[in-house]
């Protein structure tokens, strides 16, 4: 391998670049104590050769190291069985071996101590596609004292049983995920849990040698804060290190440790992301709007577009959150180039699981949640999961209150070993009183001769009521056509119903800087339906020594705006420093009522190519056609528009050594524009174009880091036509360049970390208004930093006691495109203390520990939104 690198100067340069950046991090592994992980007990039956299990054999799975003589493995064999395969490590001294078992994503990993491979072919063994559902089996000398055996499932984690046969050596019986009834569909923690109490033995088929099964106990490990695989980037379950684009994953464990009650709270863990609308936890918004890399982001659910409100604030059914940074139209169609948020929801479990949780906190926060799952029949082919929650909280703004009811049932049916069907739905009902509308900049982030406006000031009327209902129902059908080809079809239909009445908005601030002129919106209705149908075919094949994973798909979607109506009226002015409420809003004098629909069809193809074991390509392209109509119901006029676009993606990943991936990528996005220019020409879609290079490193088996450099441009932006009043032209351009660093995982046993840093230079590069060229993009800080870390005591009388500490820094940022005023930088601190013993977990969370006065976001100079002050939450949960 070394000679190949040195023969190519460019490879030598990349190799040294990776080593120079990550060698200090990699060397720190020597100082790390080996983690025992979570002591998750599973049953592994051991067969012995016509004698009871000896004491040395019982130590087979010991985590203690000693200086025993090196055991030679002289042969590695893979034999086919009726359940999958068996991997045999041939030796006459298997009773001296020590094995550590763990898993990473779809990889079963066994580190075998005091052993080395001495094979006729060398010191490494590898076999591709040994059985259905199993991608690879590899064995290699991890170091001078350890062999690492890795068994990779095609889509799920294989089920492995360990045998110790003095005739053959060390034997691993591997059942593919298909043979084991799709066990791997469960979260990792559930896969590793025992299927029955550890003091009971399951019936076990004897091996060919007639050995009898004997029970052993083995430890397993969860990935914790480190999630090795993601689906948002490729629509397949792909290791993060093989994806040539930056992607950050917030695992459910982080959400639990921080006790996030909304998606908006969870997103502060994503490096470089800022809120761009009034979607914080302290508002009544039903979804969250955000920016990343300077541009708006998009949201999908379980890898599929879902129309409106895909990024619902509720978190009770969220398993993890993935953010693919940069353009993603090649897989998900039209969207902004900032990034795509993929919300992965909880799925049914094979074994009964029941959990209840109650939270009480500041601002009269009361929240309860229930999580139920398990089989509905004895054969465990029909599984269910039900998540439901209810939240009632006031806020720091006067008169504010919101109540949210949420329910999400899921039903999975394993029709056969090759086919499964999942039915899922969710429903949210939210009622809000006195939803905050923000505060003027003068008196908050800017000076005001009258002083500072109180942070709790409400600028509307107390009888303002809003109600939102959203729901979705759909299915996912997956069928395995053969060992290498599979078919996936998914459909969802959703609805949203929003009603707003008696809402007062700011109009302007009068010269005395204390009187806020207002206008009213009355009887506003926003009713929509959305339908999405997606079909994918995924196949694996080889062309010579080159391996391919091909994805071909078709998306069909429709969004109907059933009614968008309301009216504008007058509202009395409000003294911001001495408000008098209860003044009625005037009648609606300027009414509107609109409807419309949008249809879209997309066809895409993607090929993940393994040129060699350490050189991978990602090629993709998509063609979309969309059309939309809108109708003015009161004016009885109608307009229509259509557009088409091709979006490519190209990426390359090179791994000079196993733990390091160097990557580069090119990707594009599109967003349809509506309307025409002065000459009647239809506008072209907005375009996003990104170039990105980076390095991904597995610092250890539990700790990963990503460093990314990107250049992202958004073009074809509509801007005012200087020669024709009330018309627009397409010459606007905005550019963002930056650096992002992310770190997640476990540093030492019990010490976990999740954080990152982002530098973002986002500005306007072209516009008909020359005065704004060079101005910074709004709500985009140049520097931002986040770090959340926890430590849990691993042994002794205080085992289960843990502590958490979080630091969040957001630099100052422009509040509008004219750069007329800034939101100041802020640094907040969170803390947590928790204790878990058996099935019980109690927790206290302190947010904004030092009560820092800061501002989340701004829509304009009249609507600046304060961040949340110091709050305390207490949570108790019980699993049974």
Give an overview in words.
The chain has 880 residues and is mainly beta. The two termini are 52 Å apart. A hairpin with a 2-residue loop joins strand 46 and strand 47 (863-866). The protein has seven helices and 48 strands.
| Biggest sheet statistics | 22 strands, antiparallel, barrel
Number of strands: 48
Uncertain segments are: 1-68, 177-223
- Count of alpha and pi helical runs: 7
Q: Shape, please?
A: globular
Structural class: mainly beta
The value of Rg in angstroms is 29 Å
What's the N-to-C terminus distance? 52 Å
What is the averaged pLDDT score?
Answer: 82
Assign a percent range to the helix content. Answer: under 10%
Strand content: over 45%
Task: Tell me the layout of helices and strands.
Elements: H1 2-7, H2 9-27, E1 42-48, H3 55-58, E2 71-73, E3 75-80, E4 84-90, E5 98-104, E6 107-113, E7 115-117, E8 124-131, E9 134-143, E10 146-153, E11 159-165, E12 169-175, H4 188-192, E13 212-218, E14 229-230, E15 238-239, E16 247-251, H5 252-258, H6 263-266, E17 273-275, E18 290-292, E19 295-301, E20 318-325, H7 329-332, E21 339-345, E22 353-361, E23 365-375, E24 382-394, E25 401-414, E26 419-433, E27 465-480, E28 485-501, E29 503-509, E30 515-543, E31 546-575, E32 590-612, E33 615-632, E34 637-654, E35 660-671, E36 686-700, E37 703-720, E38 728-748, E39 751-766, E40 783-792, E41 801-810, E42 813-814, E43 822-823, E44 826-837, E45 840-847, E46 855-860, E47 863-866, E48 871-879
Parallel strand pairs: 2-7, 19-21
Antiparallel strand pairs: 1-13, 3-4, 4-12, 5-6, 6-10, 8-9, 9-10, 11-12, 14-15, 16-20, 17-18, 18-19, 20-21, 22-23, 22-48, 23-24, 24-25, 25-26, 26-27, 27-28, 28-30, 29-30, 30-31, 31-32, 32-33, 33-34, 34-35, 35-36, 36-37, 37-38, 38-39, 39-40, 40-41, 41-44, 42-43, 44-45, 45-48, 46-47
């Amino acid at each position: 391998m070394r000679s190949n690198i040195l023969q190519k100067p460019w490879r030598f340069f990349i190799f040294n670049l990776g080593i120079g950046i990550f060698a200090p991090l990699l060397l720190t592994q020597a100082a790390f104590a080996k983690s025992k992980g979570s002591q998750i007990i599973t049953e592994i039956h051991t067969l012995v050769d016509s004698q009871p299990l000896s004491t040395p054999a019982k130590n087979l799975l010991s985590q203690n190291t000693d200086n025993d003589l090196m055991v030679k493995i002289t042969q590695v064999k893979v034999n086919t069985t009726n359940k999958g395969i068996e991997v045999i490590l041939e030796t006459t001294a298997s009773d001296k071996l020590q094995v550590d078992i763990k898993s990473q994503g779809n990889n079963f990993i066994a580190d075998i101590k005091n052993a080395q491979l001495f094979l006729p072919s060398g010191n490494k063994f590898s076999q591709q596609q040994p059985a259905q559902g199993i991608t690879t089996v590899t064995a290699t000398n991890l170091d001078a004292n350890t062999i690492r055996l890795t068994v990779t499932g095609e889509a799920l984690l294989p089920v492995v049983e360990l045998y110790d046969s003095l005739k053959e050596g060390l034997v691993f019986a591997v059942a593919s995920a298909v043979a084991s009834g799709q066990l791997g569909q469960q979260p990792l923690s559930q896969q590793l849990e025992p299927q029955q109490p550890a003091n009971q033995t399951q019936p076990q088929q004897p091996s060919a040698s007639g050995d009898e099964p004997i029970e052993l106990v083995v430890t397993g490990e969860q990935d914790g804060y480190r999630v090795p695989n993601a689906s948002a980037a490729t629509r397949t379950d792909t290791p993060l290190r093989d994806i040539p684009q930056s992607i950050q994953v917030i695992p459910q464990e982080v959400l639990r440790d921080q006790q996030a009650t909304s998606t908006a709270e969870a997103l502060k863990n994503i490096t470089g992301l800022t809120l761009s609308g009034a979607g914080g936890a302290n508002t009544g918004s039903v979804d969250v709007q955000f920016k990343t890399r300077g541009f708006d982001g998009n949201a999908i659910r379980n890898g599929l577009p879902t129309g409106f409100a895909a990024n619902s604030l509720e978190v009770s059914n969220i398993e993890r959150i993935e953010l693919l940074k940069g353009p993603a139209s090649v897989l998900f169609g039209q969207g902004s180039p900032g990034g795509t948020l993929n919300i992965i929801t909880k799925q049914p479990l094979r074994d009964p699981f029941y959990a209840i949780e109650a939270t009480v906190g500041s601002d009269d926060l009361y929240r309860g949640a229930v999580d139920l799952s398990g089989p509905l029949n004895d054969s465990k082919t029909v599984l269910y999961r039900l998540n439901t929650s209810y939240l009632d909280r006031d806020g720091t703004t006067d008169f504010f209150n919101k109540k949210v009811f949420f329910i999400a049932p899921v039903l999975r049916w394993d029709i056969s070993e090759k086919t499964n069907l999942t039915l899922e739905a969710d429903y949210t009902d939210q009622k809000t009183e006195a939803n905050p509308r923000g505060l003027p900049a003068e008196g908050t982030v800017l000076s005001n001769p009258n002083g500072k406006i109180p942070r709790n000031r409400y600028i509307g009327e107390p009888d303002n009521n809003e109600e939102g209902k959203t729901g979705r129902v759909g299915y996912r059908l997956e069928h395995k056509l053969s060992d290498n080809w599979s078919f996936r079809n998914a459909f969802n239909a959703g609805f949203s119903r929003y009603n707003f009445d008696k809402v007062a908005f700011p109009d302007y601030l009068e010269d005395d800087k204390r009187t806020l002129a207002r206008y009213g919106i009355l009887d506003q209705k926003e009713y929509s339906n959305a339908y999405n149908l997606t079909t994918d075919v995924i196949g694996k094949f080889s062309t010579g020594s080159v391996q391919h994973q091909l994805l071909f798909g078709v998306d069909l979607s429709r969004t109907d705006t059933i009614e968008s109506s309301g009216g504008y009226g007058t509202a009395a002015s409000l003294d911001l420093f001495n408000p008098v409420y209860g003044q009625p809003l005037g009648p609606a004098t300027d009414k509107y009522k609109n409807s419309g629909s949008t249809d879209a069809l997309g066809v895409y193809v993607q090929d993940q190519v393994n040129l060699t074991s350490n050189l991978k390509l990602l090629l993709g392209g998509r063609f979309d056609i969309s059309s939309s109509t809108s109708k003015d119901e009161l004016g009885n006029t109608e307009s229509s528009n259509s557009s088409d676009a091709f979006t490519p993606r190209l990426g390359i990943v090179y791994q000079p050594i196993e733990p390091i991936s160097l990557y580069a990528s090119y990707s594009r996005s599109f967003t349809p524009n509506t309307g025409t220019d002065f000459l009647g020409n239809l506008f072209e879609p907005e375009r996003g174009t990104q170039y990105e290079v980076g390095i991904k490193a597995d610092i250890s088996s539990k700790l990963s880091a990503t460093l990314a450099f990107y250049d992202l441009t958004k073009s074809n932006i509509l801007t005012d036509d200087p020669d024709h009043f009330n018309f627009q032209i397409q010459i606007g351009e905005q550019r963002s360049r930056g650096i992002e660093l992310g770190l997640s995982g476990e540093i030492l046993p019990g010490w976990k970390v999740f954080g990152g840093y982002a530098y973002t230079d986002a500005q306007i590069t072209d516009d008909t208004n020359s005065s704004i060229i060079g101005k910074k993009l709004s709500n985009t800080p140049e520097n931002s930093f986040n770090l959340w870390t926890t430590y849990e005591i691993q042994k002794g009388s205080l085992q289960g006691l843990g502590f958490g500490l979080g630091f969040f820094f957001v630099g100052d940022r422009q509040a509008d495109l004219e750069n007329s005023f800034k939101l100041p930088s802020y640094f907040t601190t969170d803390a947590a203390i928790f204790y878990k013993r058996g099935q019980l977990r109690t927790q206290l969370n302190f947010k904004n520990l030092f009560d820092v006065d800061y501002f989340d976001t701004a829509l304009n100079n009249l609507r600046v939104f304060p961040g949340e002050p110091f709050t305390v939450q207490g949570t108790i949960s019980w699993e049974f």
